[in-house]
Amino acid sequence: MAKQEQEVRIGFYVCHCGTNIAAMVDCPEVAQFVGTLPGVVLSKDYKYMCSDPGQELIQQDIREHRLNRVVVASCSPLLHEPTFRSATEKGGLNQFYFHMVNIREHDSWVHTDRAEATSKAKALAQAAVHRVAHHKPLETKRVSINPTTLVVGAGIAGIHAAMTIANSGKKVILVEREPTIGGHMAKFDKTFPTLDCAACILTPKMSDVGSHENIQVLSYSEVTKVDGFVGNYTVTVKRKPRYIDEEACIGCQDCIPACVFKQPKFADEFNEGLGKRRPVYIPFPQATPQIVAIDPNTCLNFKKGEDGGRVVSDKCKKTCVEACGDKNAIDFTQVERIEEYEVGSVIVATGFQTFDARRAPAYGYGRFPNVYTSLEIERLVNASGPTGGHVVMRDGKSEPRSVGIIHCVGSRDKKTNVWCSRVCCMYSMKLAHLLKEHTGAEIYNFYIDVRTPGKGYEEFYNKLLDEGVHFIRGRVGEVTDWAMTPDEEGKLVIRVEDTLAGYVRRIPVDMVVLATGLEPQQDAQDVRRMFNMSCGSEGFFLERHPKLAPVNTFNDGIYIAGACQGPKDIPDTVAQAGAAAAEVLALIDKGFVEQEPNTAFILEDECSGCKSCIPLCPYTAILFDEGKGRAYINEALCKGCGTCVGSCPSGSIVQNLFDDEEIFSEIEGVLAYE
Amino acid sequence: MSKEWKPRLVAFFCNWCTYTAADLAGVSRLKYAPNVRVIRLMCSGRIDPQFILEALTKGADGVLIGGCHPNDCHYVEGNYKMLRRFQLLKRMLGDMGIEPERVRLEWISAAEGEKVRRVVNEMTEQIANLGPLGMPGRFAEWDREVESLAAQIEAREGGGCGCGSSGAETAEKEVAHV
Amino acid sequence: MFEIQRTIKYEADRVPGFGREVMGVPGCEKLKDCIQCGTCSGVCPLSIYMDYTPRQVMALTREDFKREVLGSHTIWLCASCYACAVECPREIRITDIMYELKQRAIHEGVYPRRFPIPVLAQEFTKMVHDHGRVSEGLLVTKLFLKTNPLAALGMAKLGMGLMKTGRFSVKQENIKRRAELAKIVETVDQENLKGKA
Amino acid sequence: MKYGYFPGCSLKGTGRAYEESLLPVMQHLGIEMRELDDWSCCGATAYMAVDEGKACALAARNLAIAEQEGHAQLMAPCSACYLVLNKTQHYMAEYGAMKRLVDKALGSVNLRVTRPTPVRHPLDVLLNDVGLEAVKQKVTHPLKGLKVAPYYGCQIVRPYSTFDDQADPQTMDRLLESLGATVVDWPLKTKCCGGSLTGTLPKAGLRLAYILLKEARKRGADVIATVCPLCQFNLDGYHDKIAARWEPVRIPTVYFSQLMGLAFGLPAGRLGLQRGFVPMKPLAAVTAA
Fold first, then answer.
1. For chain B, which residues make up each domain, given as ranges?
2. Which of A249, A496, C49, D231 has a CB 3.0–4.6 Å from the CB of A291, allowing a cystine?
3. Is C35 helix (H, G, I), strand (E, B) or coil?
4. Between the CA of residue A384 and those of A218, A295, D156, what are the distances in Å?
């Protein structure tokens, strides 16, 4: 371009990254080679370029050698590009006179032949040297941050994050799809390893959330759409009808016993189907908000509509309405509402679902009544559960005399879920303790490995051993009901290799508990798409960096916390929620973000006015100036994908940072080296 | 060339999915063939067919394009738009006698480091079997033919009317049909 | 008085490379992934008769204890019901590994003498080579004569019964193109030899 | 509907009754089964233990013959044959070395496998090609009141079967129901019958057969229905020995195809029922009707 009257003076640096790069790439040789390329004024190799001295080196060289371009060959630009750009800027250059070469993730870590890897590093470095000569000075754009935060999911992660942010005086919108907040933790009886009661520590937090002046709880609601970008998102929320006026309901629950169903009749979701509820119900006594809900699928005042959905039939006597009296909170005409909210950042804390035990047919869940999932047992031992904490089997009266707890159901299994769910060992031991405490039964734990890496966890394991709980190392082959010996008659028989004793054993028990693993929510992929995040191969949301950015996603302004990022226990979940809240607060406190200036613009003189670019832009950033007969780009809307650039027939659209001459020179560069 | 020939691949990876997947392959220390040189773009939608042609003419034996899976594009649907262009380009390359295996499009998500490894290895092997594309050489040859034709014409016509350049153009067309 | 036995294993007891060799055979590669959970033994209907459980065979193979594995009863007790292979959480094809170990034991001649199962396998194979099909009556008769003539007497009643119901015959079934079969077998042998060379 | 038919050695020997009942039943349903010309041993279990490559080559010879004779699909009623023929195709698809070896061996006698030939079990064909409705229409003597324990054994559901659930197969259950029988739910449907160990190591092998028979009786079954010649032999042939070792557990074991024949009203004498050791008493009433 015309403005390049100035002589190009490139400084090149190749990083050893300790031995991470140097072990596979001959760094001095790369430096020596690049030093011979035209435009390169100096070329150095250095042990750690990202360290302070490394960055200092760049700044010093810029000043001393009048460098006007900088290239660093080290790790992925997704990791350290900001570091080196800032060093370039501190050295007195425009930060976009910098380019980075990835010779670690894309080279030294993935190849095994030193000569080949070195040769590849040279090619990539040469491409960067070619490219950087064409770089132009650019300015970043500042965008202000809306100080309201959206938190999606109100389990312990969402609750903790919301409280942390709200306590700092910032507004939070907390969306929960169930009628109450609390998530899985609200269902637990005790928590490991301290055995403190889950309700005692969670429910006060829940009511604090419900009454917090800075938190708006949208329960029984789902986020359906997200538009915008970091600092300024527009979020669409679907408010599902609960047929109760949330403002009018005072939580007296008089309507519940008034229901025409004299006895609770329908499977109670909160109690994992072990208890019954009426069509009008509150999930559990401390539910937040303290507002009942009416289930149209079971309420007699609804019937099947023409489209298969439920419509009001008005056939019921509506004794509930009568009981509600002049509060008039019951509203059968309620319909789904769509609301929009403006927020600056988002914390996704959508949690997990438990593995469906039916997918492990050898263990007989669904076939044998006394095979339970761990979540069912949580409700069974819970004082506020369906049996008031009395552990009885499905017949409703007999207590188990012996219980087998099978670990790793739907974990560490290539046929289902390959990962370790992290919490099952500990919660199985917790349940073993509680079952023993409640019933005095013999308890057998069947495990592959006992994993107790947490504060106080190994001690808890010791406590269980002291209590006389059996630990049998072996993954259970099957649970059956056919007896070989008289004492097996009428029992569930567990066949397992006791791998430590070295025998195959048959162990008859009354009750089997399946320690089901944690897996991504059913709709995790939809949520991922909505927030423009990534998922790991197992389906949990992917953090930006496993160590250095564990609550960030690849989408700025979107953070993740809790088990939606991977299985984790309550302490880790809360820690992560706090971290996500801190990230959000840091962003809000800063007040603005700098946007990458990789936007596109149209060279007015060259545009032929064909308009073919206009429908290509997903952000409607391209407009047409009828007067001039030329297209132009609204920079504020452009997000820098370059799709219009790649398809412009007259080549009249230019993308900053990725313009044609930069890319062509890079192509030429990677191929110039033999 | 005294050195043993090895395939050279140029890859264009989108920043959000495939480039990240390649980073993941690195972090996971998966090993793959060293023949690929990755150029990072923000979106596969940025890929201009000219990039691919340029890479081939400058000596690449194959070009790999990596983008997000359908419906997963960070920019909504840049990958689709590139796909449309890609189909056209494939047809054109076919007409030029370039084997279809030499230009490959793959959807690789940020989680699929393993797929990066598999695709690069597969493609390297395929192209090793196909042999060098040798476009720079072919171009040089074409240039020489064109020049010699032009010289012949000039000699025949005595170079009177200064139409050497237009003569070369027609010659080029003819050569292109050979 | 009781007899004591040393059970310690020295490095010299291993045959280095054995495990890797087995894991290089088609169908056996996933043995690498074994986490010793014991599911195979847990579902195996015959594990209760084995000297080493299937899980132990996996561990011994991977750790190069060739003599122990090839000399074990376990590999001969496997009835090929594939329950282990289907249930294994690491998708290890345990049944196929057992086949591989059986082949090696036969090849090296290390199976227990007069142990009927390998003898059956070999007699079976020989009959197929010679005739193309198996005549079960004849096969069983030969088997008992070779391993345990006394037991043959015990089976006589069953044989009589089979004969009565028209299911037992010592007539040899033959296929027509026996030469073709011989050529196929011969070619496989040649290829195997080439492979080893 | 036409299928190539691979009987396997057992169906010509101890499992003769299986063939004797299956062929007329299939014919009755309008299914044509053409026996492969000059088929050889499938390469069965015992062979796999000696030389996997040869076993696969042997199986592939049969597949090549099927292809040569133009069969689109091959029916293999014996569980072991079904498994080995399927396994061979899997191995050839999965392992280049195995494919090369087999191709070479077959090539030496001018045979070739160029495409996969689907290997089907009669149960698969009956449920998915013929359909239960068509079966029901042929039922003239419903097996009312007959309590049948369906026994699938191991090798048709594991590991290569595509037509039924590995843990809890259902095809035979549904077939038997359509014949009017009462299906006994028992947990041992897919457990091992003892295989060849009943002969070689009776202590271990017979115990497995004993467990199956005992449990079927305990659950009130009149008869066990099986799909495999070896299973039938093991469950039918050793009652005296089992009684001597443990306790008498007499219960007849027949092929599902024999039950189909009875329900279709085919002459009982022509279904090979006389070949069982333990006669199927409760059926006297059914067949007389």
1. 9-132, 137-177
2. A249
3. coil
4. 26, 22, 49
pLDDT tens string A27-70: 999 999 999 999 999 999 999 999 999 999 999 999 999 999 99
Is residue B173 pLDDT above 50, yes or no?
A: no
Task: Say how many C-beta atoms besides its own lie within 10 A of residue D68's C-beta.
Answer: 14
Q: Cβ of B40 and A642 within 8 Å?
A: no
* Chain B residues with beta carbon closer than 8 angstroms to that of A542: 110-111
Kindly give the parts of chain D with pLDDT less than 70: 45-46, 281-289
Q: Which two tokens stand for residue D6?
A: 């691979």
Q: How far apart are CA C16 and CA C22, in angstroms?
A: 12
Contacts of A504 in chain C (CB under 8 A): 41-42, 44, 47-48, 53
Task: Report domain B9-132's class.
Answer: alpha beta
Residues of chain A in Cβ contact (below 8 Å) with chain D: 361-362, 480-482, 484
Please report, as a single letter, which amino acid is at residue C66. K
* C-alpha span between A126 and A11 (Å, rounded): 12
The answer to whether the peptide bond before residue A193 is cis (omega within 30 degrees of 0) is yes
Q: Which domains are assigned to chain C? A: 11-108 (1.10.1060.10), 116-182 (no CATH)
Strands A98-102 and A69-74: parallel
Distance of CA D128 to the CA centre of its chain: 17
Rounded to a whole number of angstroms, the distance from the CA of D195 to the nearest CA of chain C is: 6
A369 and A342 part of one domain? no
| Consecutive 10-residue averages of pLDDT for chain A (674 residues) | 70 96 96 95 95 95 95 94 95 96 96 95 96 94 94 98 98 97 95 93 94 96 93 95 93 93 93 93 92 94 87 90 92 94 97 96 94 96 92 94 97 96 97 96 98 96 96 96 92 97 96 98 94 89 89 93 97 97 97 91 92 89 92 89 91 94 94 78
Residue in A102, A109, A670 nearest the CB of B29: A109
Q: Taking the model in full, what pTM does it have?
A: 0.85
**pLDDT exceeds cutoff 50 at B176:** no
User: Which CATH number goes with the domain that contains A408?
Assistant: 3.50.50.60
Q: How many CB atoms lie within 10 A of CB D180?
A: 17
Q: Which of residues 21-80 of C touch D (CB under 8 A)?
A: 26-27, 45-46, 49, 77, 79-80
CA A557/CA A346 separation, integer angstroms: 6
Task: With CB atoms and an 8 Å threshold, state whether B34 touches A668.
Answer: no
B42/A618 Cβ within 8 A: no
Q: Which residues of A148-166 are buried (b: 16+ CB within 10 A; e: fewer)?
A: bbbbbbbbbbbbbbbbbbb
Q: Which residue of chain A is at minimal alpha-carbon distance from B1?
A: A674
What pLDDT, on a 0 to 100 scale, did the predictor assign at position C146? 66
Do A372 and A492 lie in a common domain? yes
ipTM score of complex: 0.81
The verdict on a CB contact (< 8 Å) between D240 and C100 is no
